[in-house]
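INFO  loader      accepted 1 record
INFO  loader      residues=128
INFO  predictor   begin
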Amino acid sequence: MTGEFWVIGGEYEDMDFSRPVSGGIEKKIGPFATYAEALAEWKKLAWQTVDQAQTRFYIHEQNAPKKYWVIGGEFNDPAFQQFVGQMEQYGPFADYQQAYREWARLAWLSVDRALCRYWIVTQSQDKI
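INFO  predictor   done
INFO  writer      dumping tokens
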């Protein structure tokens, strides 16, 4: 992949993640030269705000068509560092709303399994 990668997000007024709190603006962190660097920052921010349901961050590649993926699965322990088996990947989805519907479906299917987690990530290629 080429381009600049940014981690964008913050706290939102609603669960549609369309309006930042108090009319503010989304945070834009970066640029990062590689997707891996941006993903590391996204993970850090996601874990810092894991208990804040209306906070969301995503990765955006400047000047590239955005595709959305749902990733996750079952983990070995509550630190969510290592998957049981392989990481699950669903997508790509052409827009965030389609990815969100898949994320919600997977989240509800695994609601009683405390070691399962799913996230929405963006990527400009067909593979994560």
